[in-house]
Amino acid sequence: MDRRAVLARFDREVRCRPSPEPGSLVEREPHLVRSVGRSNCVLFADLTSATVRSVIAAQQARYAGEAGPLEWKVYGHDRPPETGACLAAAGFAPDPPETLVAAPLARLGPAAPPPAGVEIRRVGSGAEFADAVAATKTAFGLADDPRLAELADRLGDPALALFVAYVAGRPVAAARVEAPDGGAFAGLWGGGVVAEYRHRGIYRALVEVRLAYARSRGAELVTVDAAPTSRPILERLGFEPLDRVQGWIWSPPAAETS
């Protein structure tokens, strides 16, 4: 792949023209795109060394009255290169770094069947959704995650497919794919396997079933914000690293009460 060309297209088509999620709005300013509502996130920013600090301060002022945190997604090619350092100085805390990897679907082989004894279902019922949430919480060690509950409102949306893997009837892994209507890009998200079921090919099987769904939606390229644990598996399947990516989180100060 032409790394620069794919990143430029990713910025134009995914980061600058995101599909609004239920309960959220997409807001645009010169050189900045953000999501506001259920989740608050700066999705794209093209700034300069002269403007980055003032723009960060303006976003903090914009979200100061919101109940939830603000995330700022920073990619390695974003400008200026000191954006991460400026966010840290403004009180943002870094999430663990990841790598944006991508693959053209036309280059990937046909999906392999899941390992013996593993059943993968696309979530279509309340019970299956509860299983997916339980598997995700256990896999990632989460006590709770409001973003999981929000997915329940989107189960009828063909742009989203949520999958859960079972072993002997137990939900042991879950993952989703986002493939917007008419979009060239599909994104793989949230793939997690319960610890005692790792290294059995279940994560790879969840990737395969999501690639098949992305093909059915007409996507050309698939991207993943890959953690160090999943990146080697994805590269063996044909994904290529494009850039580093890191989320920065800022929690507004609690409002004073009289």
Features:
258 residues; alpha+beta; 12-stranded mixed beta sheet; 7 helices; 29% helix
Task: Summarize the model shown.
Helix content is 29%, strand content 31%. By secondary structure, the chain is α+β, with helices and mostly antiparallel strands. Strands 1, 2, 3, 4, 5, 6, 7, 8, 9, 10, 11 and 12 form a twelve-stranded mixed beta sheet that branches.
Q: What is the rounded Rg?
A: 19 Å
Oligomer: single chain
Termini distance?
A: 58 Å
Percent of sequence in beta strands: 25-35%
What are the segments in which pLDDT stays under 50 over at least 5 consecutive residues?
none
Tally of DSSP helical segments: 7
- Give the proportion of residues in helices: 25-40%
Summarize the topology.
Elements: H1 3-15, E1 24-29, E2 32-37, E3 40-45, H2 52-63, E4 70-75, H3 83-89, E5 93-94, E6 98-104, E7 118-122, H4 126-140, H5 146-150, E8 160-167, E9 170-178, E10 185-193, H6 202-216, E11 221-226, H7 231-237, E12 240-250
Parallel strand pairs: 3-4, 10-11
Antiparallel strand pairs: 1-2, 2-3, 4-12, 5-12, 6-11, 6-12, 7-8, 8-9, 9-10
